[in-house]
Amino acid sequence: MSRGDCHSSRSVGGDSGADKADGDGGGCVEVAAAASPLPSPPSSPPARRTDAEDGAEAAAASFRPHFPSLSQTIGAHSAVESEGGGAAPSKESPPEAPAAAAAAEAEAAAAGPSSESQRAALAARIACLEARWREAVSYLRSGDPLSAAAALTLLMRTCRTSRLTHRDLPTARSNLAAALLAAGGLAEEALAEAEAVVAELEARPPGLLDAPARRALVRGHLARGQALSALGRHAAAVASLERGLALEPSHTRMRSEMDAAGRALLRQLLAGCYSETLALPAPEPRPLALSYNVSGAVSPAAAAAGAQPDATALQLRWEELLPARLLTPRAAEVDDRTRDTYNFVTIETDVRMPKRCLRVLHDSARLAAVREAVQAAVEAARRGGGSGGGGEGDEDERDVRVLLLGSCAGLMGLVALRAGAVHVTCVERWLYLASAAGEVLAGAGVPPDRYRVSYRRPTELRLREDVPICCNVVVATDLLNDGLLTSGLLPAVRHVAAAGLLTRDAVVVPAAATVWMQAAQLAAPPPRETSGLDLQAMDRLRWWPSHSLGGPMAEGAYLPLSQPKVAWHFDVLDCPDSTEARTLDLELEVAGRFNAVVWWYDIRLYGDIRLVTHQPLAPRSAPQGAGDGMTSSNDEEEGDDEEEAHNESCWRGDGNAGRGDGGTALAADEPGQWAMVVVGGGGGERPAGRSSPDEPARLQSLRAAVHWLPGPIRVAAGDVLPLTVCHNTVAMRFEVLTADYQWLVTRDPSLPPAMWAGLADTARLAAYRRAIERAVRRLRAAGRPVVALDVGCGGGALALAAAAAGADSVVAAEVHPGLVAAARRCAAENGLGHKVAVIPGDVGELVRGRDLPYTGANLIILDLFDAGLLGHRALATLECVKRRLAGSGPPAAEPEEAAPHPPPPQQQQQQPDAEVEAAGRGGADAEEGGAPGGRVEVVPAAARVWAVGLELLTRRVAGEDMSALNKYRWDDKYETVRLQDLPYRQLTAPVPVFDFNFTQPPADDLGGGRGGAVYPSTALVEAQVVAKGVLNAVAFWYDLKLDEHSDEPPLSNAPPGLASTAEEALAAAAAAAAGGANRRYGRRYSRRCQALQYLDCALPVALPGGGGDSDTSGGGGGGRTVVLHAQRTTAGIRFGLRPGVGVPVPRPPFKVEWGGGVSIENPHVQRARYCQLLVSEWLQRLPRIGGGGGGATTSIAADLAPLWRHCGSLALDPVALAEVTHRLTLLERLYGKAGSGGGGAGIGADDGRAVAAAVAAAEGSVGVEEGGEGRVGLVRPEDVSLGLPAVWF
């Protein structure tokens, strides 16, 4: 060894035949012959000493006296050397060079300080170190880890005293940690050495980690995890092993240790051993402090299970949960830290709000109540009544001037004018809602002097400039959202009152609101509902940045743990203007994991007209085992066939949850209970969601909000927790002051939110598991080892199912770093980590022989399907996997079995000639392109896409023409919806569109060569018309045939309540016409989601003569059909009519391009492209500036944090802000720098311009895939998540 770095080509810890990286004992001992280092010149400065060396010296000097064997061994070595003797005896006597080297060094020191003597002394010290290393090697090879540990400890000590270093000292130090572990009883000393290795190597830049250093870091993580497990600190051990697996996912020893540590951690969690304490003491005048307590007390149960005091205590002030000083919009626009982000979020919200308004227009229960409240308020103001309503006013009638803080696109303005108001001022925060309001009011023929539309934030309104005259009625119902305060309701009303915009006796709608809350458990299904698989590790990621979800929760999605309790009461006109807090005694009635607060509000609009945003479930005793999850029951109505019942089962807290007898209302006359009443639900047609006249109407645009606790708290029936509730007029928080959390949740907004609904779909998981078991049995019967590949594993449920079914090895590929860690933890907690290797990154970058066996995978599992089947580029990904990673060709089959589905009878020009020819061959060329005599199983085996023509238009709402909003429906991509939530009219019978055979061999070229056939890309189908209307939309879904050799019904996401045949559709249309209903909602609950595509052209259709409706277009008898054209694009499937058929539909302003260059481009388009330019510029810099967390230098979450803390005061929409946050953080996680400590996935990190170009192409491309199905290209955000789901959990 020498001063500074040594340039020897052989390392101190190099590989040799004695390498035991995956063996027994220490597990990471690496030995080799030492290299002959070159000494540095004597004039060179002293060699640097690293912190790791100091740590190693401290560790060597801190051996405990209760380990006499090691200390005596070290003493014996030192005594022998001091006497000039040889080394300690061993099974293989090491050379006696240390004594001779010491003697030579003494002679050189006595000779004087000449340069020759200095070189001689240095050479003597180097020779001593080399001899020490050879001595340690001999001990390791002879199986004496204790003597090897003593020799390595003296080696480290000598390096320090001699002021020498070497680039491979971390390798030697990792060998020391492994030797200490192998010696037994020295876990603390081994932990110190392993932590020194990890600290030194992780401090190096990733580019300076060569292969030996990388191996040493992996082994350091392994030794650290083993030491922590030996000390009983299994949580820290799992974290260390996860970091090691991030560096080397296929490390066998690491995965086995992860299995053991994960299961031990799960046992301690069940015993209540590990807990994270969040302490919120009483307010004190001191700064925010974070302390990590490692010396806390251990409960008796934890002590019995061998727990260690490893809890984390966070001490916070409750005042700092919410900001006391709020950021104003003007300040956000001029501040360099928030200006671009605030403008970006504002524009993105602008383009989303018209569709949100359309949902409100579909909510007949809400509109009916608000309309009645506005009419009553106008009448009271005209008679001089107060905001309480119901009183008699002056005899002289007054002029009513109404100020609308959000007019529902002008609808409430028309309601107020028709109720007797002389003037209305419609204030719209969002640009396109203001434009729509002006169109609606002008289209209704209202004189311009009776209304004004102001595009302003409500907190910036000024008299005369924005509001022409003081108003005596103010309506702010459009500022209501799921979180009540988060859209700025209270600051807006307070501002208009303080700015002189209201008279003293003004009527305010809404008048007051009461906030209710309920303790809840939202958790993964228990193992008995997931085929014995424990997916509890996924709950460590269960979080969302917004209290408002933006969609409905699935019925029975949460288990109520307490009775509903009043949290706050707000008087809107006399609202608070500062932060307030109170403490509630929360009585738990059901045992479980308390990890969320579900809260809603009962709002009094005017008088006795009220709305309730949620109908809670009464807590019931959970079934056995439900404390760790939910139970399952069918969510379809009685009388459904077996197939639908099988596909639609869902889990919930009790067997009756979500049904009519679920106990949703509490009796008003019971002590301490309450009742919910909705007045003004409207007469005539019953609002959607109301199953009986006595049941409160279910609102479709206002729902319960969810506040996530820092982690789950294990509670028992009868426990009482002090819950702190605080608000700052624009947000609310619910926190437990002192509690033991089982773990702290990872708050990652980049996780795809749709995965929670997929995790809850236990019927889908069970169907996949059965298909995987059958595929494994067939491969076993063929005498082949089963190597499974799970493409896009997510949380790893299907990979675990394959391992549990008997697969020899499973490779699970996942691109999201957070899901990679969760999948590894799930595998460890199920004891399957030794079989399942979770590989981070793009599946297209996997390499045979490195990430999976060289022979490839013979079982491919794919579940990348969105609501429209192909939105995540599933076909291109599958073809890439089959071409590069499949171990053999698909199984040969008889001609009649080549296509799992029969060809659609009404389908024309669906397949190219090459594919028809390949299907006729019946797989004769199946063996080509794969291993001879083998077969590849693909789950699922096939899919069929179905479509139906719909009319989905807004015409008259509450008697007013609101058709001006229809142009905001159109988009160039389809959206995910739950069709039962929309007032659609079915115009055609469902027709099959595409058949995809996933088991066919991959194509050799783009035209479908002899190796296989391409998938169908276009289709023309004829759909039979069953009702009169305007065909402007197509809804489509798919059936998945999981196993071509089984008769099990396919999985389907078909919408319930939709007529499946032409006869049923005709009968339903006739019944609807007879009943006077012109819209159709789903007749039952379902969590299935479908894809909805708005057509470029609308086509009026009618029944032939003699049908249920008059035939205005002529035509004789027989069925009339409409031809739909379907095309497979990069974004999925797109539908349209034949060229020249139909009338072009109007489009939103930001989608209409004028052309002719930027100088004359549509300003609305330029405004939308401004956001794209900001994202593109940021993506080009992202590979250089980092991102994604995990030690990164920057994070987009930090830029968005001020907007989240001041969302209400900035007049932002929390749902749109959450969607923008999700997309930006997902971009950062995908394309940010990758590192051993986490962070981004590092995809495309070499070229930021390529990343920006790929993302821009994904946003604007609707053409046919370029490059063929086998070329996927860069992973895009749309391949991981398509935004907010249609139904949550």
Automatic annotation (TrEMBL):
<keyword id="KW-0804">Transcription</keyword>
<keyword id="KW-0949">S-adenosyl-L-methionine</keyword>
<feature type="compositionally biased region" description="Low complexity">
    <location>
        <begin position="98"/>
        <end position="116"/>
    </location>
</feature>
<feature type="compositionally biased region" description="Acidic residues">
    <location>
        <begin position="634"/>
        <end position="645"/>
    </location>
</feature>
<protein>
    <recommendedName>
        <fullName>type I protein arginine methyltransferase</fullName>
        <ecNumber>2.1.1.319</ecNumber>
    </recommendedName>
</protein>
<feature type="region of interest" description="Disordered">
    <location>
        <begin position="1"/>
        <end position="116"/>
    </location>
</feature>
<dbReference type="Pfam" id="PF06325">
    <property type="entry name" value="PrmA"/>
</dbReference>
<dbReference type="GO" id="GO:0070611">
    <property type="term" value="F:histone H3R2 methyltransferase activity"/>
</dbReference>
<dbReference type="InterPro" id="IPR025799">
    <property type="entry name" value="Arg_MeTrfase"/>
</dbReference>
<dbReference type="InterPro" id="IPR029063">
    <property type="entry name" value="SAM-dependent_MTases_sf"/>
</dbReference>
<feature type="compositionally biased region" description="Low complexity">
    <location>
        <begin position="907"/>
        <end position="919"/>
    </location>
</feature>
<feature type="region of interest" description="Disordered">
    <location>
        <begin position="886"/>
        <end position="934"/>
    </location>
</feature>
<keyword id="KW-0805">Transcription regulation</keyword>
<dbReference type="GO" id="GO:0035242">
    <property type="term" value="F:protein-arginine omega-N asymmetric methyltransferase activity"/>
</dbReference>
<feature type="region of interest" description="Disordered">
    <location>
        <begin position="618"/>
        <end position="697"/>
    </location>
</feature>
<dbReference type="InterPro" id="IPR011990">
    <property type="entry name" value="TPR-like_helical_dom_sf"/>
</dbReference>
